[in-house]
Structure formats: structure tokens, C-alpha cells
Amino acid sequence: MLRNRVRELRAREDYSQTDLGKLIGVTRQTIGLIEKADYEPSVTLAIKIAQVFSLPLEKVFWLEGDEK
Question: Whole-model pTM above 0.85?
Fold first, then answer.
């Protein structure tokens, strides 16, 4: 299962789900689903999210059981 730090990073930057969604071109609902791990983003979407936070992809998303 794909895990992520989107909620933590979004809060650190003081972005709402709507703010982050607008930055990457998706809805607030999509961000909420990603944060709850109910939706696995495409590679393109995952890269866009990592770029917003200026982090490498593997610092935002990882496979369960892998190191962060």
C-alpha cells in the first residue's frame, strides 16, 4: 500500500486541501482521498505534489514497509 505525508506537509505549509488542489490541478476531495490513502495518485500527480513541497518523491510517498 502507498503511504504518504501529504497531510503533514500541507499543514506545515499552512495550505488547505483546496489550496493544494488548486496548485496541482485537482479537487479538494482528491487531496482528502490521497491523505487518507483511499486513492493512489498517478506518478504525474505524485510528482506535482512533491514539487509543491520541494521534496524528492520518496520523501512524500513510500510503499508500506519501506523506510521513509
Answer: yes
Domain 2-52: what homologous superfamily? lambda repressor-like DNA-binding domains (1.10.260.40)
The CA distance from 48 to 62, in Å, is: 15
Domain locations in the chain?
A: 2-52
**CA dist 50 to 5, 9, 43, Å?**
10, 10, 11
Q: What tens-digit pLDDT sequence spans the chain (68 residues)?
A: 999 999 999 999 999 999 999 999 999 999 999 999 999 999 999 999 999 999 999 999 999 887 55
